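A quick aside before the break. I want you to see a complete sequence-to-structure record at least once, exactly as it would be stored in a machine-readable document. Don't worry about memorizing anything.
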Amino acid sequence: MKFNLTQLPERNQQPRTAGLTMVMDKGLSLDEAKNFMDVSQPHVDIVKLGFGTAVVTPRLEEKIALYKSHGMAVYFGGTLFEAYLVRNQIQDYIDTCKSFGIDYMEVSDGSIEIPHAEKCGYIEKLTQHGTVLSEVGSKDATHIIPPYKWIELMRAELEAGSSYVIAEAREAGNVGIYRGSGEVREGLVQEILTQIPAEKILWEAPQKAQQLYFLELIGCNVNLGNIPPNEVIALEAMRIGLRGDTFDLYLNKKTSA
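That is the input. The structure line, written in tokens, reads:
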């Protein structure tokens, strides 16, 4: 018997281009990945094999095949791209992605400095081999980027061919668009949204309070990333008003006496 609840917001259906949930896999075993897909597949769109974990993950080919068999887009974390880049091995990075059947790639500069024109050049180059996501924002908490610069960088990277720009937060959610406490830099976020379409931004939001902020600001079909695998179901419930934090968000307050 299906649940027959009214006043639920309409979630975009898979395959979707907005309302994405990106999950960070930081080292799930193959069995854990199977269980994760068994429970969460209808609510996940992208799986990121976090930072450089792919290099040390056993049975990596099997894990990637598992995710792809469930319709997931899979990509290596941006730190791995940077590890190849700093060693002048970009062609090796492309060849590695191809060898694993990876056709999503992240271009980031969170750990190394890349002149922005050069970064956009890598985006243009990689779009010839797959779908590119590019990350804006430093992993260095002391490196504060002003709002106008975030907008300038995001716009240029979208124009260079990125399908989405990722707003940096790290897996802990304490840099980039967040303060060290995890609090959202609200002025920054709202200024970005005056110039960059919400559907083109993937907000890294590993903490519940961060997810709630974007759901209230943008709606149930906001793109959210760096979600822990064991929190996907809870996030999906929160997206549609079935968690205490968003319970009143979509209700019609007009009720009969």
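Two observations worth writing down. The first strand starts at residue 21 and ends at 25. The beta strands are 21-25, 46-49, 73-76, 104-107, 131-136, 164-167, 201-204, 224-227. We'll return to this after the break.
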